[in-house]
Protein: Tetratricopeptide repeat protein
Amino acid sequence: MRFKDKRNDFSGGLLKRFSFKSKIIIFCILSLVVAVIAYKEAINNRENNKSKIEKINNTNTNSQTFIKADNQEKNNEEELKKLKEEENKKLENRYQESVKAFGNKKYADAINIANSIISENENFFKAYNIKGIALCYSNNYNEGMKNIDKSLELKSDFGYARFNKALAYELYGHYDESLQWYDKNLEIENYIWSYYGKASIYGRRGDVENTIKYLKIAVDMSPDIKEIAREEEDFNPVKNSKEFRDLIK
Structure:
């Protein structure tokens, strides 16, 4: 208690030594110092806040730039995909024209259309196939086979090309090879004309058992095959057999 009293006495005594005017001056100085400190603190806070805002803005700007770039890339990819789809659609339509021309025995037209497709897209495998079989039917077996093989090189599991290779072999009397490629076609699709093609080869050979075996499959798939088989010269060697007559009646 005594120490506390002495401290209070000291403070009081010290203040009593200054005049009222001096006290005012001291108070003003202290107030100014406090004000300066407060101002500097406010300035520092404002600068810190400004720096934080700039960092946030920069982050947002970078994020927006990245998002815009990513969206632009996606838009470019979608646009490119759309263009490719449109191009393939046009080529597919022209390919169907060449198939129709071949079906109508307009082999030169089929070849010309296929050539125009290949000139625009050398990887359009379907065009080589239809060109190849049209060439084979135009008495150009070697070039025809080259084109069919090119089609299979581009797409080995293209069923129509496998079938046409078998058909080309059959057309030129290579029956064993033809049977092999009809089987290759049947490995990837249950195609009625491959069964019919095998039946016609066995028919030429007079093999009644195998002729009936494969022709029956074709007939079961489509009864209209009976009418075609009745007029098919390939079946002449077996037409008088009871099994053949019973199948197509």
Q: What stands out?
A: Residues 30-158 form a domain with the Serine Threonine Protein Phosphatase 5, Tetratricopeptide repeat fold (CATH 1.25.40.10).
